[in-house]
Amino acid sequence: MARYTINQVVMLTGIKAPTLRKWEERYGFLEAERTSTNIRYYSDDQLKKLLNIGLLTRNGYRISKIDKMSETEIHDIITNKLVGPTQENDITALMVCMLELDEYGFDRIIKQNIVNRGLLLTTLEIIYPLLGQIGILWGLDKVAPAQEHFVSNLIKKRFYVAIDLLPPPQPNAPALILFLPEGEYHEIGLLLAYYIAREKGCKVYYLGANVPLMNIPTLVDSHDMSGILTMIITPLGELQHQVLDELLAAIDLPLWISGNLNILKDDFEGKRVKIIENPYHFIECIEGLF
């Protein structure tokens, strides 16, 4: 069972520390645990409860009324009335679904957002902020790898479904190679690029994660390609830079790189690459191919 300090709970729920202390004094739904040195901490179950309570209070429910609600009543209100109206509501509800491994609830919220917002806005306004929250938990060592993989795979499933529903590209459409280099495994950003490229009418050769760079020239030589996109989050080592230089020397195509802009601008300054700053920039690059 994970333990959360009061500062960590404040960061994850948005509920201020004085408010938490006041609730603990006045109401029965919250009672922090104590260490041997009398320092407050909160359990996984208490964090999930506080995420839900924070969601209710942000939507006008008085804490005195929430105190009298059962867990079932709280769940029903959130599920039937609050999920959907605001971005913050949905991100909080998705966090709870992750902690509870609630596949049905998680999938329902993501699908509802895709219907209402489209896949691009759902990714930018819901999925990316959610992954940021999960990253906070990961950094605090408060989320299990199984929970992170659970969420990632549900999200990836939604991308594959959306891509499968797109019409096939025209035979003469521009063709792109999309891949993550060796050591890069987080595909959600690349899958968004896959969807965008297909939605704009491109052929896409999607290679996935952890692809050796020197495999790319062989594919370029055997097919008529219009461009290559990769994403880099972690800084490249000296050997990886050498391999990238060899790749650039072996191909005569636009090489687009996105990911961690803080390292990209330093690592690739002066090289024959184009830094893609955001999905809308990528759309501009694709439209230039037609």
From TrEMBL:
One of its GO terms (molecular function) is cobalamin binding. Pfam families: B12-binding_2, MerR_1. Keywords: DNA-binding, Repressor, Transcription, Transcription regulation. Signal peptide: none annotated. The keyword Transcription regulation applies. It comes from the Bacteria. The keyword Cell division does not apply. Residues 3-72 form the HTH merR-type domain. This is MerR family transcriptional regulator. The lineage of its organism: Bacteria, Pseudomonadati, Bacteroidota, Flavobacteriia, Flavobacteriales.
